[in-house]
Amino acid sequence: MASGPLNGVRVLEFTQIIAGPLGCQLLADLGADVVKVEPPHGEPWRLQGQFIPLESKTFQSLNRGKRSLAIDVAHPKSQEAIHRLVREVDVVVINYRPDVARRLHIDDETLRALKPDLVYVDNTAFGRNGPWADRPGYDIVVQAASGLMSGVGKVDEHGTPLVPPAFADYTTGYSIALGTCAALFHRALTGEGQLVETSLLVNALTLQGTQFMSLPAGDATQRAEFMQALERARKRGTSYADFLKEREVILRVGAAGNIYYRAFLTKDGAIAIGALSASLRAKVRAVLGVDHNRDEPDYNAADPAQQARDRELTERVEAQIRAQTSAHWEQAFERGGVPVSPVHFTQELLDHPQITENGYVLRLEHELTGEQVMVGPAWRMSATPPTPERASPPLGRDTDDILVGAGYSEAEIAAMRAEGAIR
Description:
CATH superfamily of the largest domain: Crotonobetainyl-coa:carnitine coa-transferase, domain 1
Structural class: alpha/beta
Strand content: 5-15%
């Protein structure tokens, strides 16, 4: 269990894989009592990469602080039990396809008829409306559909798109938690429950910011040029990888002179710097001892002569930085007032003082697999600090306690187990 500002809020979770479990873990971090509903054999992420039976690292990373109810949602007696539980909770979070939720009688209309002030949080792949409303989808599919995969623009040695990390899933997890908290606040003011909807698709689009945004006053020519180039490329059968190169020419004019906001190879690794203002760019030039008229009124990134000078400058700076270690450049840029960091590997950060001294590392004891170290809650709060105390639950650990709390007798629970309704 956990302490926090949502202490006393009860959540019934019908989710699996990443987005829904993360959203509900965030709610548990904030103090909510989250009951995770799983099939008797366990949700897919529990079974993916098991290192002991029914336990995986991915599952444990997304389900701390919850209770586990292992129940066959399709079984009539299970549906009766779930409807009884719904009357006692504040929030239902679900990421089933809308047609599946209706078939299992756990859709918004059915459950809010049982509890009118229920907050029902519905996450789908593509949204409830439109031609893809009932289409299943995972992060990889939504990244492809939304343009996020092509926006990242990485390919393998054969020119096939590489799959980025699960950006849409993890962003949607935060969206689920934020939407839930907003709806609970509204209910506290008015007594009204409501349906809250989000999707992997809308969060994948949100991540892309100006790439999705159309602003005719500012980008009409560039957007038209891009669409014409894309149409020509598809007609002539240009490969995906080759069109990515064409796109860079259209969308990143002046990139050859970018010595200000990028990563560089060093003698023993890599560093990244970020300078997005004229004053910071001047500091970059001072550290490197270079001249560049990037912020002068007469600078023209489209001028071929300027582009040639920019390419020469970029190559010179790359060689200069490559000649020294990451530590050398970290110290030099930090002294010069330039935002900088070595490019770390995640695995080396567990004991980094910046992380440990801010309390970003959480140590828990899992009752089956022992000690685990993971990233802690995303918030520090002075009055209601989130302090998770329990790791993810073994499958069905809390089934009996949850059903007893809903008014079931030991005999009724035993009968449900004998019929295969619960684990």
